What does this fold into?
Amino acid sequence: MPFLVALVIILLVQWLHLRLLRLELPERAHRWLPWVLGLLHLPLVAFALMRMAATGSHSAMPLLRGLARGGFYFQAFSVLHLVIGMVGQGLWRLSRRLVEQDEAGEEAPDDPSRRTFLRVAAVASTGAAVTLGASGSREAFGDPLITRRDLAFPDLPAGLDGLRLAHLSDLHAGPLVGAEALGRWRLLTERERPDLLVFTGDLVDSRPEELGPLLAAFRGFEPPLGRFAVLGNHDYFDDPRPLWRDLERAGIRCLENAAALVPRGGAVLAVLGLQDPMARNGRFRRLVFGPGPRPSEAAQDLPADAFRICLNHRPSEWEHALAAGARLTLSGHTHGGQINPIPGFSSAHLIGPRTDGLYRQGEDLLYVSRGLGVVGLPIRIGAPPEIAILTLRRG
It folds into this structure.
């Protein structure tokens, strides 16, 4: 079902794109446009089908993956091109309403100036789309920003003062995020010498086997206080049990409504993890892999003096973390909006108010990471990827 929805969206976008391209290109090229668009997307569709069926030769997959990535980029270009072209058409209609209309109150359908205006707008939108796509790709796949913040708590046990944790989220290992990017993120994180490494979900894009390159990239990187993870909604697009198994085998403790006690300097840090609500509806087929967030279960039998931090993929679920007694909650999910064409406005506000950075409720804190990977389109605009290095301070 997800594949069919994606295929319908691709076909719809390219049908609209075909109409826009016909305004830009000479008529002799029109007969070839559907074939060219089809060929550009054939590897993308084939790759998606092979991934769903878990078939295909390992030697052929890297080539097909590269061609499919080109299809993703063209899809991104198409969306940007269409948006800018639609703005141009909207401006034309507005100008006609303000200047002149025919007797019926609508612009004349055969007005030659309309076609000229739209052709110029379409050509201009091509340049703007290419520019935005190129800059968005550089932002998405360039080195992430390293966010370093001190987080102060008046009741932080003295033994935890100065503890540095690395917070990584939304890596989305898969078709758009390969071994090279994962290895670079590991190197940049390791250079910060954190005491603790945590992952807050969406480790893979959609399939359990995509976890392999991530685990290979982070093999041997073992901070002194351990490595912990929770799964995100994308990790439940397929059976999550291989993820639970392989994370534990790699020495990354997966906390699904569970907690781990980490001693340091005579104090105890409790690292809790809440299960994502997607566990109740895995694979979009209402297959149940868990109950979703259970704060009482996660905090069960924890020492009263343990300082609690919670890994919770969705910032919208902060209330569950607070119910578990978390003083610091770490989340991701939003990608900081990922594509923010309006300066100063995060697209993630459309799904919730907590989109990026630090939030406070009394003395309790929530940190929302913009994450590292991408989903849907291989670009970021106004939402650079992030590695968060957070230091706990007493005071």
